[in-house]
């Protein structure tokens, strides 16, 4: 139906509990239209990470639905979903392999030009180039050479490389120095630019830049609107 055409992500009356009898989300509805950037905010324990877990399909909703362009999340196979939706996590996993392989994880066929372009947009290129073996440096979860902030930049580079239509970002809360913080913010701006985005927001600047701010409290949306409206 017409209703779905300009709608990128729709979370519709979603209820969810991890444990029977202890509902965490009590009918959450969030509508992200194409080209919009929507910020989800709320106090600790309000359910933000739970919304993220559902979007990642780590769990299924109890009732209600989540759709992308009108297609239920459950109808996507996981590979297709990973190509449609770019997810930037707070603490992304590194895989055993070179830095280049880690960046092109979403598209192993990607050539070095695309890897470097993604790294540049994610503000991590200069750091990689400063390593003796550059993009060929071997990394793994055990052999982690990245700071928390640099890991986020790696996650952003990975996402930029796959050029997804829809972005879901979990902004890091981890303590990073102000220089890395500025790099993350600029990289976030680069990745969000021109894409439909849904961001679990912790930074004031992200919230101010959002087309709409959605406020979650105790598993319910209590307010939404632009920064001026709220
Ligand atoms: P924060 O800002 O601190 O990350 P949040 O808004 O992301 O908080 P959630 O992590 O979604 O909040 O937690 C919402 C509620 O769900 C909390 O009451 C939490 O205890 C509960 N919860 C989270 N994960 C689980 C789980 N795996 N099993 C059971 N309960 C959980």
From TrEMBL:
GO molecular function, one term: ABC-type oligopeptide transporter activity
Primary residence: membrane
GO cellular component terms, semicolon-separated: plasma membrane
Domain ABC transporter per the UniProt entry, residue ranges: 9-230
Record key words, sorted: ATP-binding, Membrane, Nucleotide-binding, Transmembrane, Transmembrane helix, Transport
Compartments where found: Cell membrane
Name by which UniProt lists this protein: ABC transporter, ATP-binding protein
Full protein stretch here: 346 to 575 of 593
